[in-house]
Fold each of these.
Amino acid sequence: MELRHLRYFVAVAEAGSLTVAAQNLHTSQPSLSRQIRDLEDEIGVQLLGRSARRIELTAGGRAFLDHARAVLTQAEAGAEAARRVAHPAKPCFAMGFLTGHELTWMPEALQILRDELPNIDVMISSQYSPLLADGLSKGKIDAAFLRRERGMPELAFRPLVKEPLMVILPIDHRLAARKAISPGDLVGETFVTVSATAPVLRLVIDNYLKRSGLNITPAHERIISRWECP
Amino acid sequence: MELRHLRYFVAVAEAGSLTVAAQNLHTSQPSLSRQIRDLEDEIGVQLLGRSARRIELTAGGRAFLDHARAVLTQAEAGAEAARRVAHPAKPCFAMGFLTGHELTWMPEALQILRDELPNIDVMISSQYSPLLADGLSKGKIDAAFLRRERGMPELAFRPLVKEPLMVILPIDHRLAARKAISPGDLVGETFVTVSATAPVLRLVIDNYLKRSGLNITPAHERIISRWECP
DNA sequence: TTCGCTTACGTGGTCCGTAACAATG
DNA sequence: CATTGTTACGGACCACGTAAGCGAA
């Protein structure tokens, strides 16, 4: 038994399918199938129930899954513990920013850190809001400036600013001359909204449009894959 | 990182030397050295302090060692848990008997189990005494009727019966007519004793013959590979 | 000089990817 | 008939073993 088998098995269990698990693992599906079979042969228990059209965990597989996850996290924790002990015992403060918003907060934050904790390493990370929240909950980031992600009860959010929603138009657009635009004016326009990598902001915009009585269907949207403030 | 790396590292840490660890692992010393180095490269921490003449664990190595041991035991526990869940499913009482002695105790034991634990699966295993003791100490058997094996401090033995030593003869043998036979009468006979798979009984017989002043050498024995009461 | 770890290098096992096959909805 | 998992097979990589190198006792 090797950690590879456990990684593969966990991926299969979480994906519920050999095919998609193989894609997630960036390997081929037959190879994955073979590795799972080898694992089953070694521990002498059938972990997956095969039905030629789909797979499902057996009772033994469910019992094994918890242990496999624990083994993988423990192995990673061991490496992390070794790094923490071996590497300098120098305290390091990791800070996260929304991509494109670094200049909004970083100068002031760095100055405060320099004043209050002069003998500290500062690590900066720029990510999308969900990745920042993930880093916070995993302890990889000590503090971050991000949006209020839902489903993260272990995180404490404190509002710092309210951001106005803006519409950006070509200079020669029919609405460009106006001082203010009401949601109704946008009906019929090709609407470029933010990508799904910023779900909170996306939700705010969608809710605002919905409250205004508009029904911007997906047909009116163009999803952009990367959103950066100019 | 693979479990192989962890197994190797634990072996090296316990042996305190690459050479003897390689012998214990049945692999070559250069290969082991390379694997340890790969592990160090992957987690980015030097685990062993090399002094060209001997090695010792670094601080990071000591921190990693505990986790590595935990990972290995957890992996093994996962396999064992899967087997326990998959195979029995019901509470299962495993009972062991000496081969050939099942009928002596099984009926009464089964009746007691049926009365006190009606909703339980009973598993019966017939083995030689050492294998039964091994199964008991590994938790594969809950209780067994066997001989008092030595070197098993984790087992509790309770005497149930004393078995007389018997000599079995052909009906036309010169000693067959006697009511009792003294050890001295056996001198010169071709002696069929029990196999080495029953070391305790064998020891009892040998000691008895020795106390009687006899010297039944191996030349007078024929080792039988299987012993069963007729 | 010897012992113990490292480096170099050729070989074999095995893991992987492509392809063909089987089965089920 | 298309999708999903299995079997077959050729290739590449990596771990292993042998041999040579290096440094300290």
Amino acid sequence: MAIEVVLADDHAIVRQGLSAVISQEQDIKVIKEASNGKEVVDIAKNASVDIFIIDITMPILNGLEASSQIMQINPRNKVIILSMHDNRAFIERALSLGIKGYVLKDSAADEIIQAIRVVYKNEYFLSPRISTFVIQDYIDSRGQKIGEKKIVSLTGREREVLQLIAEGYINKEVATHLKISLKTALAHRNNIMQKLGIHRQADLIKYALKEGITTI
Amino acid sequence: MAIEVVLADDHAIVRQGLSAVISQEQDIKVIKEASNGKEVVDIAKNASVDIFIIDITMPILNGLEASSQIMQINPRNKVIILSMHDNRAFIERALSLGIKGYVLKDSAADEIIQAIRVVYKNEYFLSPRISTFVIQDYIDSRGQKIGEKKIVSLTGREREVLQLIAEGYINKEVATHLKISLKTALAHRNNIMQKLGIHRQADLIKYALKEGITTI
DNA sequence: TCTAAAGTAGGTAGTTATACCTATTTACAG
DNA sequence: CTGTAAATAGGTATAACTACCTACTTTAGA
């Protein structure tokens, strides 16, 4: 019986293209498609699916949050993340959620096919560029290096603040929105910047977009 | 003989997916692919191509600039723009370049097939959402409305400045980069913001990203 | 239960951005 | 040839951001 996959991507053309590529394989079948995070979570609740292929950047509920909920529904659910970017922080988050597949959009289409087959067997598949630095981090953490690996993890509140900033709110508005003082909003902002090694608003916004914390 | 098309998109998976969709049609053939604007311009210089399908958001040379150069090489070249956003300003620019096809990525895959066939016959194909407001604008411009239609068109220099801002340069650096005074850089920035009705850096950056003026 | 992390909030300085002005030179279209 | 748009550049004032401080309270984990 074929491996039954669900595709989630907000762009219909991308989704159908991917579907066309996958359909060329006899052992894989696209049984459902979703155009946002909420839809794919609903599918996870109501259908039996072998593998979820989820794009990071989606409206309403981004790919990461959707994956998180899907893993909560059943930790044995298998998810492959499709992403435009090879950002360390995001990969860590995905892996810590128990996601086993992470494929970059700029890799060849047959990588996604490979990923489906590998993840189906409950093994990891990461695009080469990703696995390279996951392995590198592993090596570094084993070694005697005391060097401060800037492994970034924002707190929940920090992510909330960052999202508002990236959506165009100024600090004053962030504070109002979260019902905290301006000084607190600034403190969060400064902590975020320090953690990320970012010094400019522009980079902050781009980071948030890259991470799928917010969408354009 | 089949319609020979070239695909330009920086994401290989998207490109191959699209290629798979197109390949299902007997009368259309993907003869070449490009992963950035420069590559597709090079193809335009050296090969005979019926239709160029170009994604807006691409590194090195964005889809719009690439299209502009392709139209300069031969004004009879046929280009279809693939875009994530239905932004008025960008569509105007595309149309004024002589581009006859504009397809949104969130539309169905067969729209691109339709677009190829229609544009091949030297007619216009715009995704419905696009054509709606192109027509609306036409109607408005015919009517007696004196209302200030905020039809936005940035000048070349303004686009340069905006790109640098969106890439994370502060005004001082923009000035250095373009070898102009800080005051001039500021003047351009203010003009851009006024034209776009934007008052915050965050929105400026998001605008640039949306328009494909720069990439994340 | 104790402690570390997270969340809260304030102070102070210096830098950068925003929003108005005005004005000159260059290039191009009517 | 002549006006208009574009590109250049300066002035001034206010708002927002960045980068340091310190310090208290709450929360969750060892």
Amino acid sequence: MEPGSGPRRVTIVDVAAHARVSTTAVSKVMRNAYGVSPAMRERVTAAIAELGYRPRAAARGMRGRTYTIGVLLPDIRNPFFPDIVDGITGHLHDSEYQVMIGTGGRGPGDGAGDAESELRVVDAMVDRGMDGMVLVAPAAGQKRLDEVAGGVPVVVIGRHMRSARHDTVVDDDARGAALVVDHLTGLGHRRIAHIDQREPDRGRAETMPNAVRTRGYRDAMRAHGLEAEIDVVSTGYTEDGGYRGAKWLLERTIRPTAIFAGADIVAMGVLTAVAEAGLRVPHDISVAGYDNTSFAALGPIGLTSVDQAGRQIGADAARLLVQRMADTGRASTFITTSPNLVVRRTTATPPA
Amino acid sequence: MEPGSGPRRVTIVDVAAHARVSTTAVSKVMRNAYGVSPAMRERVTAAIAELGYRPRAAARGMRGRTYTIGVLLPDIRNPFFPDIVDGITGHLHDSEYQVMIGTGGRGPGDGAGDAESELRVVDAMVDRGMDGMVLVAPAAGQKRLDEVAGGVPVVVIGRHMRSARHDTVVDDDARGAALVVDHLTGLGHRRIAHIDQREPDRGRAETMPNAVRTRGYRDAMRAHGLEAEIDVVSTGYTEDGGYRGAKWLLERTIRPTAIFAGADIVAMGVLTAVAEAGLRVPHDISVAGYDNTSFAALGPIGLTSVDQAGRQIGADAARLLVQRMADTGRASTFITTSPNLVVRRTTATPPA
DNA sequence: TTGAAAGCGCTAACAC
DNA sequence: GTGTTAGCGCTTTCAA
């Protein structure tokens, strides 16, 4: 029991006394460690059950592990991240590890990827002795990530960079963006605009998923001979970012016939702006997203989107993390997953 | 540094040696405790900065606090919960506390409110020495909650029950449900169905938000002389729950003219099912939700919903928690917030 | 005001 | 196979 009153919490000493064995024995049984006779194990197990003993993770953490895995999410509102979390917790469900989620302490309206806030959360997780961490699209630089990964097993999701210190799971974002552009040009679109997330740091630009999607968009446009039509608005991967970006685009004298939003959550804002402008989707303008979140599939939405199998990505990350926690020095793994385009009802031939 | 190699982590001993003071002094400075001269404070502060010292939360937790607050969410997919989390983190932003979020390890498709999984998470938080916890719509029984709250400061959000051990912040769910029914009957609806979350435990039924909304719906229907039209389908507060519930309702020989979903996330599933059935909203059928999440306001959705100010609720909870952590023995507070109906475009007069 | 020393609950060496 | 003994990095009495 912490500061509260109540009865003192059962400790390993109580269990040892109750079972008339040493605390070492209890500790070993708890950890399924080597060197306990079946008889001893049984007595200890019984005592544990009888007293309702649960070890304190903090105390364990002082010497061994805390059995806690930290997951850093850039933004809890983006419906794509729960998919990843599901994959992680699903993989860890039968293990002794507990997942704790941390997000930047940002209010709504602020852009995702607040680097300072993220730094605090990562530090906080390290300070709390997490046995391992999954960092989803972290904004930190390579150097900082390597630093963190040097101290605790880390798997990074979404950053396009290899590191010897941590494992990486990433979607082929350039390919995903190309899928969208190919699809839209195939329908006859030429003026295809893209809304992405502003990337303040030039250094890490090449490795952030948003930046790679934008690059994929540019390259694909060029490949279709549409270099002159390239049109990127940078706001943020939030609903509001999509709303503001679309407002901006719709005010153009020659407005785009299609908007490719860098994330489904962005597309949501786009749809709102489009509706407010009195335009109909896809009759007047086509809209596509990225992530294929559950909201994209909603009846009244039916958003064309790029599927990147968040659950699978999360599960892969968890698997790699477990391996790395077991063998800290192992060589790092780099997994790339392939995106798929899911065509729904927000994309069609452009207005005549 | 945990298991990893790398340089040993800076400890309080290093700082003390570097500043040529005792570890006690460093500890006091870290905690802004009473009894340090300005000169001493300055030297210690300098040493801390120079060495980049950050205390290990686990070690602090052995004697004092961990500076960590646990937030239990029943479901990370429901877009209402980020509002609450924003309120909590917003209030705690400038404090020394860090927020860690835990959710049941459920895969998609399972209903929310998995009691066993929730139990594990709450235990895990207690075991990890959380200084305080905010439990959002926990499924646990009164007894269990009091037990937990006896050991660590707790604020419960969403349960309709007073407890001497923990504070409570709750929306007037019965009133919210009545607002919807009043609105729909005012439009001329009589066959108003409700989709709620199955409540397996009779004991706690009266106190769960879903159950109270259902009761509010029933009472309001009766008040309008529509007792015979009461029609409740129990699935879960998930998108899939809404989808299945609506499928079921739409198969009725005499189908309802309006569906009141117990949560926005449920309404999302309803909208999908309605669209699949080839029906138009609100022309053929009206739909209303609860929570007024950001998705309700989306252009293509425009869902009529009950606003319960999640951000405010979260902020209130955080405020109460901070007070309780400062004074464990204080009398408990019970806050009820008043819901508001936000009418959008999914509700209209019933078909002739 | 300052610091020495005793733990917090657990795990890891090391004896037996 | 079992128990004894040191700590892990902090906070907290309690003397000085």
Amino acid sequence: MLNEGLPPGSEVDLKNGMKETFQQYLSERGLKSTLQRNIILDTFLHIDRHVRVDDLCLILRAEHRNMGHATVYRTLKLFVESGIARELRFGDGFTRYEPVTEGKQHDHLVCNVCDNITEFKTGAIEQLKDEIVRSHGFQVDTLKLELRGVCRQCIRQ
Amino acid sequence: MLNEGLPPGSEVDLKNGMKETFQQYLSERGLKSTLQRNIILDTFLHIDRHVRVDDLCLILRAEHRNMGHATVYRTLKLFVESGIARELRFGDGFTRYEPVTEGKQHDHLVCNVCDNITEFKTGAIEQLKDEIVRSHGFQVDTLKLELRGVCRQCIRQ
DNA sequence: ATCGTTGCAAAACTTTTGCAGTCTG
DNA sequence: CAGACTGCAAAAGTTTTGCAACGAT
């Protein structure tokens, strides 16, 4: 362990942890650590927020002219399989991905006016999970909560 | 009013109300009530559950050989605009539509094993809406809650 | 008669797949 | 040096659009 001295929850710590997790995932499966995968991971973690695949491609291609979009799609799927990313679909036709930051569970507020997507947290969710297990015998793995409406800025205008 | 005698919340009542709403929506906007639109609406209401567009097309084409899928897509969008239907996307690439039945708010449990989608109700949601308004100044119009995991049947097997 | 609507086909879009050449372990 | 990976192009799949013929008001 190289970052013993750092506070355990720091940004850098988290990101390094995710990189480690990904490298481990690759080697465990006989997959390879390539230049492209590392570039995509760095860029993805640097953005540090949900991002559309085509946006990520654009950002990547700005620096790396011949990065194939197929590679980006394939790599993002690997991120999800390794557990360091989550796939998001808000139903507008674009798939988004975001880093999985443990202990930072959040959901999304989508503004119907400006289309901005805001993250928010709520404690009411965990209770809900328990309720579902009890009433439906359904084992909950993931929970997706999305609220649409009008955001503060757009209400004011 | 033709159905005065019926209990106000009955199936028939609800569906007739939705048909009326749709007809009113059309005439208000100078749009036309056509054979196809009425067939699609009847079939859609008869299914009475979320349905994939391509499934609905198949069902419709069984009876009406030359119903165009473009017409189905266009009509379903009209349903949403008129407020009698809701668009659902679970992120599997298929758009689904379901009738909006007021006072029957429900959400969805998606099983990762058998891919079945179950509807469920919970009371915890309304509190959550209020919480969001207070803490984020966000005016909530619609709320989408989706839980993924393993359903009762699949747990048993 | 006007203008919205339909059905067909083609286009548009995101995402996936096939393949020859390249690079990692 | 075997086999995984990349980048390109083409394919796949759903949804949208253009257009001539049709139909509702």
